[in-house]
């Protein structure tokens, strides 16, 4: 019997997600041979000893006997009310109610739904470079065109506003803002967000605010929600439990809709349709939201001076900047470092090959900068979740590797 060849869809041609890319396959092979691989490629707190807050676990366990049926497509009322309450503590955040909240199987599902509801073939979305690559991937998969605006490393990875506005065309529909930023850890000041909102206002753009790291802030960094400086614009704010509450595997995210709706009725109906077709987000994890968003915020002790996340960021940053030919903007938020390899010292032509060779030699798994839609092969992303001593050793081994590495 002759079977017709089955190839992947042409829509996947330009889709990349190097955080879990081909090098991960080699890492799995090394582990199968008995090697220990230090995985600094994904922001997975559970892999590095961060326990789920006991209040969240307790509430999920208590809800399981009654959580086996479908919920409302947008999510259970009490969980959505908890999201509303979370933002009511910010007097500048636009007023919204439970019907403006959508719960998802992580933020990733909600991003996918939004792009599918929004884009026709050739519609453009402005996305930062470097970016969290899911935004670019989902734009492409929804037949849209990702257009990357530059973030300036010499200015602490702030968006290049002039470059951004020069990219707007009649086909531009939305502006993505990732703040705090993944992979750079930049936290945008209020004036930058006001300027971004002004650009969106001039060109009638939908604002898409990825704020999953909004409570992972260091030193004197302050997070300003994008919606709070653009109450007159339609803004979708994305957040969830994966990072702040260290329960990435629960896949519990939310999206908040603020601003005027009249001009976007069709788009919002599309989101509602897609929310219904996936039936609902997983129900046990929805029951985690009320416990997580109320009461003591356990992240505060971790990010304070002397806290584990604060110490790990500092140890990794100091180690990286002590390597000859390596510079790194110290992140103000999130869980990553995005160091630069000076081309005059480290002549790298293929950063994916560098990451692969580092894995084979040192059994350390990173992600290359081009995997975040950065245009040149001179950056790496490093996760700062391991204990400080583990990070210090890993960075030292990276420095030793670079000292003799040639392409």
TrEMBL record:
GO molecular function, one term: pyridoxal phosphate binding
Keyword terms of this UniProt record: Aminotransferase, Pyridoxal phosphate, Transferase
EC number of the protein: 2.6.1.2
Span of domain Aminotransferase class I/classII large: 37-398
Cofactor(s) for this UniProt protein: pyridoxal 5'-phosphate
CDD domains for this protein: AAT_like
InterPro entries, alphabetized: Ala_Aminotransferase, Aminotransferase_I/II_large, PyrdxlP-dep_Trfase, PyrdxlP-dep_Trfase_major, PyrdxlP-dep_Trfase_small
Superkingdom of the organism of origin: Bacteria
Family in the record: Belongs to the class-I pyridoxal-phosphate-dependent aminotransferase family.
Cited PANTHER family: GLUTAMATE-PYRUVATE AMINOTRANSFERASE ALAA
Record-given protein name: alanine transaminase
Organism annotation: Cellulomonas persica
Taxonomic lineage of the native organism: Bacteria, Bacillati, Actinomycetota, Actinomycetes, Micrococcales
């Amino acid at each position: 019997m002759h079977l017709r060849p089955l190839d992947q869809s042409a829509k996947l041609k330009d889709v990349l997600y190097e955080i879990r890319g081909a090098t991960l396959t080699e890492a799995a092979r090394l582990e199968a041979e008995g090697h220990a691989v230090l995985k600094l490629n994904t922001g997975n707190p559970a892999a590095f000893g961060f326990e789920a807050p006991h209040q969240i676990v307790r509430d999920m366990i208590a809800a399981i006997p009654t959580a086996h049926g479908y919920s409302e497509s947008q999510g259970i009322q009490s969980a959505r009310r908890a999201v509303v309450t979370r933002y009511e503590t910010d007097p500048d955040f636009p007023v919204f109610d439970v019907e403006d909240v959508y719960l998802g199987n992580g933020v990733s599902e909600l991003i996918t739904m939004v792009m599918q509801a929004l884009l026709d073939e050739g519609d453009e979305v402005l996305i930062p470079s470097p970016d969290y690559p899911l935004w670019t991937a989902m734009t492409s998969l929804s037949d849209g065109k990702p257009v990357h605006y530059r973030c300036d490393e010499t200015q602490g990875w702030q968006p290049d506003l002039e470059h951004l506005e020069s990219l707007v065309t009649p086909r531009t529909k939305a502006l993505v803002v990732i703040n705090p930023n993944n992979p750079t850890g930049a936290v945008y000041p209020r004036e930058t967000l006001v300027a971004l909102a002004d650009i969106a206002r001039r060109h009638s753009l939908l604002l898409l605010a990825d704020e999953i790291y909004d409570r992972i802030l260091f030193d004197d960094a302050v997070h300003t929600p994008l919606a709070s400086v653009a109450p007159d614009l339609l803004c979708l704010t994305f957040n969830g439990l994966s990072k702040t509450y260290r329960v990435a595997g629960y896949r519990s995210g939310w999206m908040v809709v603020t601003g005027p709706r009249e001009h976007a009725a069709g788009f919002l109906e599309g989101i509602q349709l897609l929310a219904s077709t996936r039936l609902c987000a997983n129900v046990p994890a929805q029951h985690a939201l009320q416990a997580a968003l109320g009461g003591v915020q356990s992240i505060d002790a971790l990010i304070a001076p002397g806290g584990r996340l604060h110490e790990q960021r500092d140890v990794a940053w100091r180690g990286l900047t002590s390597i000859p030919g390596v510079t790194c903007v110290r992140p103000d938020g999130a869980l990553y470092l995005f160091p630069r390899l000076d081309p005059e010292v480290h002549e790298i032509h293929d950063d994916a090959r560098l990451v692969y060779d580092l894995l084979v030699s040192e059994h350390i798994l990173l992600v290359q900068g081009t995997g975040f839609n950065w245009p040149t092969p001179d950056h790496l992303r490093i996760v700062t979740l391991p204990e400080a001593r583990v990070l210090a050793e890993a960075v030292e081994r990276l420095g030793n590797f670079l000292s003799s590495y040639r392409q």
